[in-house]
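Q: Please design a sequence for this.
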């Protein structure tokens, strides 16, 4: 009897697990699951920032005959949510690189690069005619940095979330902000009478 019951439970579990499916969606499609920061918001921010920066007259002039070197500093997350701000800047950086107007120094891998340079010059295992030379990296001319903040308000069954993403491009030598912009997003969600 116990064995029969166990077999029935196993069969039911297999039937139920067999009913679930995974569908692929459009990564660029609008996701509206809730008011939390999501992929649509990331794509809107990146698109707005890049489009605005590439048509800003001083930036257009600066990038006509050369590709300035930029490094991205950490974006400060001032929201109460866990938001991967590095993912936002990665998308912005990729779009700017692919525009052919900018080059980027990746400061997140400096220690690993230093280890590789030390290995190439000091290990005795690397042909010195092919080893990368110390002190030949190109310094960044600009630093990109910013803030991500939100204001959350609730009124009965309604939740309103306002997000603001600010990004700036600083000339490292002069300390002058050459470009700045912000993208605002507002999301509102109302619960139905039955809490659905």
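A: Design:
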């Amino acid at each position: 009897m116990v064995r029969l019951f166990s077999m029935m439970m196993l069969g039911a579990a297999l039937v139920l697990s067999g009913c679930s499916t995974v569908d692929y969606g459009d990564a660029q499609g609008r996701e509206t699951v809730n008011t939390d920061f999501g992929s649509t918001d990331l794509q809107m921010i990146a698109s707005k920032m890049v489009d605005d920066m590439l048509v800003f007259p001083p930036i257009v002039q600066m990038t006509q005959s050369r590709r300035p070197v930029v490094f991205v500093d950490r974006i400060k997350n001032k929201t109460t949510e866990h938001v991967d701000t590095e993912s936002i800047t990665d998308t912005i950086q990729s779009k700017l690189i692919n525009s052919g107007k900018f080059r980027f120094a990746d400061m997140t891998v400096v220690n690993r690069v230093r280890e590789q340079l030390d290995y190439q010059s000091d290990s005795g295992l690397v042909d010195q005619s092919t080893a990368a030379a110390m002190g030949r990296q190109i310094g960044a001319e600009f630093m990109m940095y910013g803030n991500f903040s939100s204001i959350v308000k609730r009124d009965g069954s309604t939740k309103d979330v306002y997000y603001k993403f600010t990004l700036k491009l600083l000339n490292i030598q002069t300390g002058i902000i050459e470009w700045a912009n912000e993208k605002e997003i507002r999301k509102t969600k109302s619960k139905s009478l039955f809490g659905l």
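Q: Thanks. Anything notable?
A: The longest strand covers residues 142-155. The beta strands are 69-77, 103-105, 142-155, 158-171, 177-190.
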